[in-house]
Design a protein that fits this description.
The structure is a homodimer. Chain A is of the alpha/beta class. Chain A contains 15 helices and eleven strands. In chain A, strand 2, helix 5 and strand 3 form a beta-alpha-beta unit. In chain A, helix 8 runs antiparallel to helix 15 and helix 10 packs across helix 12.
Chain lengths: 429, 429
Amino acid sequence: MNRHDNKNKMGLKQALDAIREGTLSAESMIEECFDRIEAREEMIGAWQHRLSREAYLAHYRQNREFYEQSLLKGLPVGIKDIIDTAEMPTEMGSPIHQGRRPVDDASCVELLRRAGAIVLGKTVTTEFAYFRPGKTANPCDPSRTPGGSSSGSAAAVADDMVPMALGSQTAASVIRPAAYCGTVGYVGSRGEFSLRGIQPLGQSLDSLGMFARRVEDIELLRTVLLRQSDTAPVQTILKPTKILLVSGPAIGETSSDMQAAMRRVQKMLTGQGVTVVEPGSEIGLADLVTHHSVVMAYEVSRNLVYESGRCEQLSEPLQTLIETGLAMPRTDYLNALQAAEAIRQKLLAEYPDVDAILAPAAPGVAPEGRDNTGAPHMSRPWQVMGLPVVTLPGLVDTDGLPLGIQLVGQARDDDRLLCMARWLESLLS
Amino acid sequence: MNRHDNKNKMGLKQALDAIREGTLSAESMIEECFDRIEAREEMIGAWQHRLSREAYLAHYRQNREFYEQSLLKGLPVGIKDIIDTAEMPTEMGSPIHQGRRPVDDASCVELLRRAGAIVLGKTVTTEFAYFRPGKTANPCDPSRTPGGSSSGSAAAVADDMVPMALGSQTAASVIRPAAYCGTVGYVGSRGEFSLRGIQPLGQSLDSLGMFARRVEDIELLRTVLLRQSDTAPVQTILKPTKILLVSGPAIGETSSDMQAAMRRVQKMLTGQGVTVVEPGSEIGLADLVTHHSVVMAYEVSRNLVYESGRCEQLSEPLQTLIETGLAMPRTDYLNALQAAEAIRQKLLAEYPDVDAILAPAAPGVAPEGRDNTGAPHMSRPWQVMGLPVVTLPGLVDTDGLPLGIQLVGQARDDDRLLCMARWLESLLS
């Protein structure tokens, strides 16, 4: 079915344009989102808490004038349940915080509200955005994991329940579920967005992330979340000149399907006249996986202090992570931070004219079973270097399951990365 | 009066040692803290909320066994009112958040509690840790500002009401009040501590800070707040070999008293065989003041989103800061971040063998009047570079008012900085 035929399959910007042009009403789009949720939520399990259709529409109609004049027109957004909301519980995927009701909205939630989005609900997160999965299934194949930790946000957008959702990433928590569910995911550079009201896990690693159907939607959300202006960004497509292609094995285990997909992309790029280079093993990209793991264990154990006193309510993997962090010599942690920064500098020095890095967004398609959320190693290198990342759908395996690839930019150069992602998106579609 | 003669003038570690040796009881120390508060609080105004003596002692006695076995023995700590506490309001110095009661303790509060500190109360902060002063007076001269934004924490420690207090610094919010009130203040490197539960102002600038009477107390608190172990740190004194002395004028306006004090310290250092060098103007230290201001305006306006919708309840300086940040071209912000990092690299490259930087902690003594908290420019350079800082008392002007100096370390090398601060402390005492 053509995306234009089905309102709630439209991209955010497409829908907003249609609403402005008068060919679509916001209310009908909202209704279709609720239709979709009612039809699919029992199977997908994307939501932890949500507004009823009646409550949503009553609020929308009471404030119709505001929403009609707003940028986001009252369309629904899903918020990962690790991001504070004053009007709904924020339980962080843990029984420790059952019914927890923050007193403030996170700044990202406040910014979306002010731009005219309505929080339809809180989406399922793994336990404290780490490994223990929630109830969410992969919309492409419900027997598979949606990936984590932003499981519900990825599934809700991929399954056409909402046109936009927020997530967060400390290891692979946006890029991996976006890749597994087949939607666009974006993780901002370290320091890019205010993280006020988002549960911190690792201060050197945490990033805000977004899910949408197209890169142009991400650009719009980014404008709102950077509080840059109340109007849509000027969007340009930028064709990269030179790409550093990091095939899976340079980082870690990768499926043969994914390796074949990367070769297909490489051919498409060279066919378009883009120079593709591959890094030598002396760069040490695989080492970044370890450095990331070290930093994460150390910092998580300093952030989840209250929770570590209630370890009978924590999953075993999280207990182990905290124990590892607490037992770690501090020099290991400082060395890992320093080594990651040294590799970032080395990449800049050895590939000064590379526009972006291209790599698999995950080792392959979403694994079967839902007892874990898949391996995070494909994201660890970029996350520990604080780089912005976009994952794009479009490639599939022989069963039609998504094989996500990711485009990685320079630190704090997110705008340019998104312009290049638009070019790659057009190539893949 | 010798500090040992008065229990609540003792340093934290001195008191803990005495309690362990049986020459001091925790309860008598607690009682003296309350005696002091009762005698002085009306004039000093350090506290926003606090436990009554009865409630404190009842809690202590109910949990005596835990406290007797703990590291911090049930001694009282003051917590800046921008740091979340579940058992007391956290109002951030603003009428917007009057009566605000967070659902969780900040991780730093939780760590102190677990180590056996008892939160005596919340200390006065300026409005959102920016410029509008609270009610606090300078204990050295109540007609003068205590400095801000961690006004109450600095005054409470300097006035012997508590042996330890937490603050936070985005510009000069720990170093300046510690200097003005004449106590030891410490600001951790960027990324050093978990900031979970501390109101964010600027993600590239915010740091956790501490106040105590001696550097050894700071080292002890640091161990607790890094969750490094439940025992006291191994403390060593480190004499620096080479110091980069940044006289006030290299950064901005400085009083002649302060300039004279810096020359006295320079003589003391060279007298001890320490090599003292001064930076050339080509380093651009004064530019860092501007870069910091740019980064702060941009980021504050993205963190205080909810509040900026209630500007009739904001002070004029804060409104102006937010407006400046919102009107700023994004490239100005990114350029300022980049320029600050370039200057940090330049300092490392040009002075590879310098052990620490020594500079005035404030332009001079605490200014008269309490309608503002003094100028922050002496802290901006180090804060925008993410460096750890200790301010030390000991120097005074002709009226006996404190002239604080600060020792600045390498990023994430806080331990070494504190060892050198102990040496300088012994030189100044």
